[in-house]
Amino acid sequence: MDGSAVADLKSIVAPLNFLVPMAEKPVAYNYEPPPGTPVRTGQSITHRVPIRDARPMIGQLSLDKEGFVLLHHQTAVTNFYDEEQIKSVYYPECVRVMQRATGAVRVVAFDHIVRNAAKAAIKGSGVKMPAKRVHNDYTAWSSPKRVRDLMGDQADALLKNRFAIVNLWRPIRGPLLESPLALCDAQSLEEENLIASDLKYPDRIGETYSVTYNPNQRYYYFPKMQADEAVLIRCFDSALDGPHRFSAHTGFDDPETPADAPPRESIEVRTLVFLPPDA
């Protein structure tokens, strides 16, 4: 985007939560940790930052540059709280969307998270709260490891060519008024602000990036997203150098959210995207 055009975009100022720089590696648990162990180590700090309305930019956004795009997708899923429908209907839909958007020769949908603050309070629901800290789901280490974990004997051959990990994020109901998603322009991320952090599961340890604050970071959102809209978020790209291989995102408290707005309901599906050898 041209600098003057970006400056002309409507924006809001909202609080975003960042990691405070720390000496040791941050750790977070994806399950109930042992007694006396915090769910997450490290401190967060809140900065009020401008978040620009990206809707006027839709035709100029790309996964390779900004790291996110918005598209329309009408789903056949009737209940996003039904695990069987998600895996049998929605996963194949996400695969087709990714193939069209990226030109991939193969796409594997392998994981998803449903978020709803009201349902997250019900023990055993499997539903999570909106994540309100700036982060990226995969790192330079955990991305190829995920391919090896999931693709078995095929992994070595697949890793010889370019691949990416791309999320498909959408509201379950719209318009989305509460806890919208802020997306950082990947071109504005600095390597020094990407902090590798352990994510502990009962059976394995993953790695994500926490993000420290930098006033040069540029954030965008798509106001009042509808249920037939989806954001693709490129979390990792094996072909690009430096921090532009990654992106960052977070839910945030929108100062324009009406007091009676229903809680955000959203789903994100994670995909491995294997690109042609010449990509």
Task: Compose a concise summary of this entry.
This protein has helices at 3-7, 83-102, 117-120, 142-151, 155-158, and strands at 11-19, 27-29, 44-53, 68-72, 106-116, 135-136, 163-171, 181-184, 194-200, 205-211, 219-221, 229-237, 248-251, 265-274. The protein is an alpha+beta fold and 279 residues long.
How do the strands and helices of this protein lay out in sequence?
Blueprint: H1 3-7, E1 11-19, E2 27-29, E3 44-53, E4 68-72, H2 83-102, E5 106-116, H3 117-120, E6 135-136, H4 142-151, H5 155-158, E7 163-171, E8 181-184, E9 194-200, E10 205-211, E11 219-221, E12 229-237, E13 248-251, E14 265-274
Parallel strand pairs: 2-9, 3-11
Antiparallel strand pairs: 1-3, 4-12, 5-14, 6-10, 7-12, 7-14, 8-11, 8-13, 9-10
Describe this structure in words.
This protein is 15% helix and 33% strand. With 279 residues, it is of the alpha+beta class. The strands form three sheets. Strands 1-3-11-8-13 form a five-stranded mixed sheet, with no helix packed on it. The chain has a five-stranded antiparallel sheet with strand order 4-12-7-14-5. Strand 9 and strand 10 form a beta hairpin. 35% of the residues are buried. The model has no long low-confidence stretch (mean pLDDT 94).
